[in-house]
Amino acid sequence: MRPHSPDRPTGSPSLSRRRVLALAAGAATLPVLASTAHASAVTAPAPASRPARFRDPSLPLAARVEDLLSRLTLDEKIALLHQYQPAIPRLGIGRFKTGTEALHGVAWSTDFDNGGAVVTATATVFPQTVGLASTWNPALVRRVGEVVGVEARAFHSRRPELWGLQLWAPVVNLLRDPRWGRNEEGYSEDPYLTARIAIAYGHGIQGDDPDRLRAAPVLKHYLAYNNETHRDTTSSMVPPRVKREYYEAAFRAALSADAATGVMSSYNLVNGRPATAHPDYNDVVRTWTERPLCNVTDAGGPNNLTGSQGYYATQAEADAAVLKCGLDSFTVDDTDAGPTVAAVTEALDRGLLSESDVDTAVRNILSLRFRLGEFDPDGGPHAGIGEEVIDSPEHRAINREAATEAVVLLKNTEATLPLDAERIRKAAVVGPLANTLYTDWYSGALPYRVTVLDGLRDRLAAAEVSHEEGIDRIALRTADGRYVTAPTEPGALRATTDPVERAAHFDVVDWGEGIVTLRAVANGRYVSFGPDRTLVNDAEQPHDWFVQQQFSLVPHGAGHVLRYAGNETDDSWFGDRVYVVVDETGLLTVTASAEADATVFTREVVRDGVEEARRVARDADVAVVVVGSMPFINGREDDDRTDLGLAPRQQELLEAVHGANPTTVLVLNNSYPTAITWAQDHVPAIVWTTHAGAETGNAVADVLVGAANPSGRLPQTWYRSVDDLPDILDYDLIKHRRTYQFFEGSPLYPFGHGLSYTSFAYGEPTVSARVLRPAGEVTVAVTVTNTGSRAGAEVVQLYTHQRRSRNPQPRLRLRGFRKVHLEAGETTTVRIPLRAADLAHWDVTRDTWVVESAVHDVLVGASATDIRGTTSVRVVGERIPPRDLYVETEAQNFDDYDGITLTDRSKTHGTSVAATRAGAWLVFRDVDLRRGVRGIEVRVANPAAPRGRIEVRLGDPASGRVLGAVPVPSTGDRYAYTTVRADLSPARGRHDLVLVVDEPVVVASLRLLR
């Protein structure tokens, strides 16, 4: 949990690794629950002599749940609401923990030996989630999910109190902005692709029997969560159409397919209401499946309601809201359930909750535990899975397959790739990521490591393979001639007058945005912020929730000052003391608040990494440059990116190597789209991979030498510049033209892009019928031929575009895809179904899904911009009638707007429109005024101003005809609404109706009067 600070968000991580170690150490001492009486209400347990029907697996799930529920006291039920559920010895019930991280393998795999020492338990670490999506292969991802589910069972068999069987994965938040720090955790910017991959992963985790789960996936994070900056206090404004068609879509699809067993709430607010207390969990999410769901809060979310969000005055009110909105399990206060038990108990005593509310949540929790086999006499069909399956040869093979299919060939001119291994005599493999593998915050520990250098040395066994990291080695000297030195064993850095050469050398890696890491040559470890604000060389890699290995070398006069640029410490908010000072003993401490008070160092370059890389590349037959990101530094949970470019020194390295050797291959190893415009213009071959686990090097090498034909495709748009993007806090992708669906610019690489070493020809697509009825389905068919000389896989992508509509429609929208493997010269016919229901969009005029009568272009191609053939289908649906504003209409159901935001109407339900400035406006298009109009009735709140005003116009917000104005009296509170009426000038016909709203008026609904 991060320390509280009034000027920093308090949205806590799911749990820091350091904290997990502490929890694991104490897990064996978690309390068991005795049967005690609640002060104000006691549910008598069932007589002990009654047969334990809940242990009979032949009974229906509901009957078993009700039998067990009837045996629990109220105190026992309340205790089950916390993440760490205590044992109930009198019923023979053991402890249960909700939540094990498993985004691309079982994560946080740390255990303790019998002596209490920390040991690392390795797991199969698959490519990062965005890399799994770049395979565009749901069948493969399902097999990945099976491995994760099996290994979760295996870890659970070792230590169930640490590794629970409810898995917090997958993340289905859509990647609408590549600057999001957690881009690596999501699948795609597209809801359909995200849903297909998530369904595959979830089904793989669960196993084939949804009633007897191998493990229980939970979808993260509901809803509209895509920024880390102030993530627990910012509100995502999502108009109804965007919410229904985009942000809800992947959640809805995965739950409707029974590929998940619940959702996790997000930290942000949605339309002004904290997601931790949003009514959607009951009102919307549970309508997508007939199965019971066990929904959980994200870590610390309930406390944010009274903390950073200040939404409720007491924790009793907050926890009552959490339960009543449909969240069942409290992930809060680490292993300490006491505060949750106290708050829920207080809520019951105050009448904020009833016992039936507690029962509802406990039913959902118990339903999950039953489906996991816990109460079956034999533990269920998956109970026998043991530790021997972890990192098995079979799992390694699937991992290598996934890592290989995740590689995307972005560019390949002059047949640079594949490399001819028999002809290459000298190869240069350079770059800071060439001989290292990085894991991310949600990774397990790698059981082994194959770097790109390792893989290429294996594949180019007959060649001389040279390696240079391409990073600078420097020394830092003070004005009085002392050098900063590091000890050979981890310890404090000091400035000394007579240093040993290697002790005074540090390797500097540039990660961009002004951040560098310093690696002490003395022992190969990274410099960290250490005890008593000293600098120590103790880290094998940058790591942990508080990444304390980040620095900036800031030019100052003729030298540089060293600025600590990491996160705050575990113990206190860091304040403004971020500059390094050499004290009178020579010790380096982070104790200065200003550059002027910091020690000035001369930065002496001992070895120019770029020049060294240029040297080894100059005489090589091929130069492979491996650059990219460090997942703990270049954006991650709680840290968004501000730029999309390569780190400046990495860019210099690439340009220098290419200048020395035109046969340069760029291997980009990172977690997100990167604006590599220079590389696209100059470098002949470019491949991209995520941080893909232990098999990264084998996968990349196999692709580079042609042992594998690349088949990965981009799951999100790669932009040319950050200037192509609106503000990261802007969530309305329709109005502000986000993602491939609406973006009108020219992307660097389009959604779905990826090249092959062979070529594919498409025939003309056909549809099985040219007319599609509302309940109907057609099949789109297209022949695909491998016209090249080698086998390969093509991802055939089906898009549609609705030509005419009442509402703005996407330029394109993915409706289906197939990945097909073809031998050289082979032809196949790809068939993809297309349902009329898939073409529906949300009609804000009537609050419903609508399939409009329209012609839809049906486009088949290799990416969103590489369309190979087009046909069309005429959909016989309905016409959206003109708006009827004579009935009460939710103000949020506008057609267009400016200067407004959406806000909570009350703390439990409803959404209203709030003006953010004077002159804000809403447009309701094509309003039917043929019956005439004489007035308007508006339900409004006005919390601050003595009097507000709403002007009613026809047509244009600025120049349209004024029909009248509605005075809005002060209501004293933003939740206090009143209904006001005003006369309007007569008007008839069909017009756009505009409300021009003054700040701080809040509009809930409106109705025209005849």
UniProtKB/TrEMBL annotation:
* CDD domains cross-referenced by the UniProt entry: beta-trefoil_FSCN_BglX-like, CBM6_xylanase-like
- Which PROSITE patterns does the record match to this protein? CBM6, TAT
GO BP term, pick one: xylan catabolic process
Tell me, what is one Gene Ontology molecular-function annotation carried by this entry?
xylan 1,4-beta-xylosidase activity
Write down the Gene3D superfamilies for this protein, in alphabetical order: 2.60.120.380, Galactose-binding domain-like, Glycoside hydrolase family 3 C-terminal domain, Glycoside hydrolase, family 3, N-terminal domain, Immunoglobulins
Q: Which residues form the signal peptide?
A: 1-39
Alphabetical keyword list: Hydrolase, Signal
Record Pfam families = CBM_6, Fn3-like, Glyco_hydro_3, Glyco_hydro_3_C
Domain (CBM6) ranges:
887-1009
Functional note: Catalyzes the hydrolysis of a non-reducing terminal alpha-L-arabinopyranosidic linkage in ginsenoside Rb2 (alpha-L-arabinopyranosyl-(1->6)-alpha-D-glucopyranosyl) to release alpha-D-glucopyranosyl (Rd). It is not able to hydrolyze alpha-L-arabinofuranosyl-(1->6)-alpha-D-glucopyranosyl (Rc).
- Similarity section: Belongs to the glycosyl hydrolase 3 family.
Q: PANTHER family given for it?
A: BETA-D-XYLOSIDASE 5-RELATED, SUGAR HYDROLASE-RELATED
Q: What is this protein called?
A: Exo-alpha-(1->6)-L-arabinopyranosidase
